[in-house]
Structures are given as C-alpha cells and as structure tokens.
Amino acid sequence: TRQSKLKTLAELKRMCTSHNLLAYETVNCIRYMTTRSQGMGGASHKSVTYAFVTPLLVDTLVTMLNYYLKELVSTSQTKYRVRNLEEVKFNPGALLQAIVAIYINLRHEEMFICAIPRDGRSYHATLFSETAPHW
User: Fold this and answer.
1) Reported pTM
2) Buried b (16+ CB within 10 A) or exposed e, 65-100
C-alpha cells in the first residue's frame, strides 16, 4: 500500500542519513588525527599517526579509504542519485576532500603507501588520476 511504501521510504532515509553522518564523522576524525599541524593534547603527532599505519590497522584503513574514493569518483557514482542531498546529510565534496587529506597526511608513511595497491577490492591503477578532476 501507499502508506507502507511511505513508511519504508522514511525509514530508509533515516538509515541513509545515519550512515552518511557516521561515514563523514569517521573520515573527518581520521583526517584530524593525521594532520601534522594539529596538536593532540600532549601526544606526539608521530605516535598518533603511527596508530593508523600499524600492521593491525593499515590494511583496514586503506581498504575503507580506497572504497569511499572509488565510490565517490568512479562511474558507479550514478547509482547514488538523491534529489536532496542535504535531506540525507550527504555532502560528497566534503567527504572527498577529507579522504584526499588523509592520503596526503599519510603520504610519507611507507606502510600506508605499500598498503594502497594491496587492496584488491577497490584499488586500481587509475584511481588517483580519476580523483584529480573532482578534487
């Protein structure tokens, strides 16, 4: 029924909004913690950055970043058609900017750089050149 479909749509919008906010806040938090110019309340920047490039975490971080980057800049982005991006709190430009900042912030970390091409799900040789026009 129409009422049922409207209820389902409202629930999907709430879920989408929640996922979008969580994704942006997670990426923005990582960007903040990897930014060299930020003070971290007594913790040295190196120790904070190192947390993201440990063998335990680096592949997970890179897989997440590569996936988001691919989804934001590849041709598959057309599957994310939304009439009102603000309604579901989706700001692809801000998310892309935060993701690119993390790559830039960790560009000197060898373990991070080596992990990027190991990601078999989302990484491909042209991922970064596809990103450039959007940045």
Assistant:
1) 0.84
2) bbebbbebbeeeeeeeeeeeeeebebebeebbebbb
Each residue's pLDDT, cut to its tens digit, for the chain (135 residues) gives 999 999 999 999 999 999 999 999 999 999 999 986 445 454 555 667 888 999 999 999 999 999 999 988 876 566 667 788 899 998 988 999 999 999 999 999 999 999 999 999 999 988 888 888 776
Asked whether 135 and 99 are in contact (CB, 8 A), the reply is no
Region for 41 from its dihedrals, namely left if φ exceeds 0, alpha if ψ lies in -120 to 50, beta otherwise: left
* CB crowding 13-31: b at 16 or more within 10 Å, else e: eeebeeebeebbeebbebb
Q: Is there a contact between 100 and 26 (Cβ–Cβ < 8 Å)?
A: no
Alpha helices, DSSP H, located in 35-135: 45-52, 58-73, 92-105, 110-115, 127-131
Distance (Å, whole) CA 108 – CA 106: 6
